Amino acid sequence: MHVNADSLEEEVRGTVDALMELSNVVADGGTDLPERLRGVLIEHDFVRASGATDGEMQAFADRCLPLARLATFLPDADLTETVTRVNGSLESSAIAPSLSAHDGFALHIHWTSPTTPFAHQVAVDLLMALAQTLCDHGVERFGRCAAEDCQHVFYDSTKNRSRRFCSDPRCASRTHTAAHRARRARES
């Protein structure tokens, strides 16, 4: 998981946010997928992403596909089915926790050994953050963008579970503009 957070809760939330954004990038497709995934990882403070080779990023893109399918399933899932799917993913992952204090960061947990390839390390970090989030909050905080033409997913970390849109600001803007125009048309 990324290590710029002030608390474990923030670290887990940031990692789950990264998972949801990565899933949206995978859903959008495109030939430059590994580089767009790298951008999301860097944006979410995965420090090894900037130095990952093209081969490592391609391997991560391949590892991201099943994670993206899992993440896009969450807004429509019940907890029992989600637990079954996440447990299946956990069982097939080589999880071997280790402590690390790399790149000037404080001591923190990695869910894989220090010699684990980049793609597997990040995939396991994402999966473990998802597992922790499910333990803490269930599936109720996973959502799908309310914009009419968007299917992106998100994790709602607001106190009152009021988030309705993905991280693309155009979605909320288009929806609010359309609602405003519809109100004005009714008033005319």
Q: How would you concisely characterize the structure shown here?
A:
The chain is mostly helical and 188 residues long. Helix content is 55%, strand content 6%.
Helix/strand-derived category reads: mainly alpha
String of helices and strands: HHHHEEHEEH
Give the CATH level 1 class: Mainly Alpha
Count of structural domains: 1
N-end to C-end Cα span: 53 Å
Integer average pLDDT: 89
Oligomer: single chain
Fold-level CATH name: Jann2411-like fold
Estimate the global geometry from the Cα principal axes. Answer: globular
Query: Which strand order spans the largest sheet, edge to edge or round the barrel?
Result: 1-2
Radius of gyration computed on alpha carbons? 18 Å
Uncertain runs are none
> What would you say the CATH architecture is?
Orthogonal Bundle
Q: Let me know the number of strands.
A: 4
Overall description:
With 188 residues, this protein is mainly alpha-helical. 55% of the residues lie in helices and 6% in strands. A two-stranded antiparallel sheet has the order 1-2. It has a two-stranded antiparallel ribbon with strand order 3-4. α1 (8-28) crosses α3. The mean pLDDT is 89.
Write the layout of secondary structure elements.
Layout: H1 8-28, H2 33-43, H3 54-73, H4 79-91, E1 98-100, E2 108-110, H5 118-137, E3 142-144, E4 153-155, H6 169-187
Antiparallel strand pairs: 1-2, 3-4
What descriptive keywords fit this protein?
188 residues; mainly alpha; Jann2411-like fold; two-stranded antiparallel sheet; 4 strands; 55% helix; 6% strand; globular
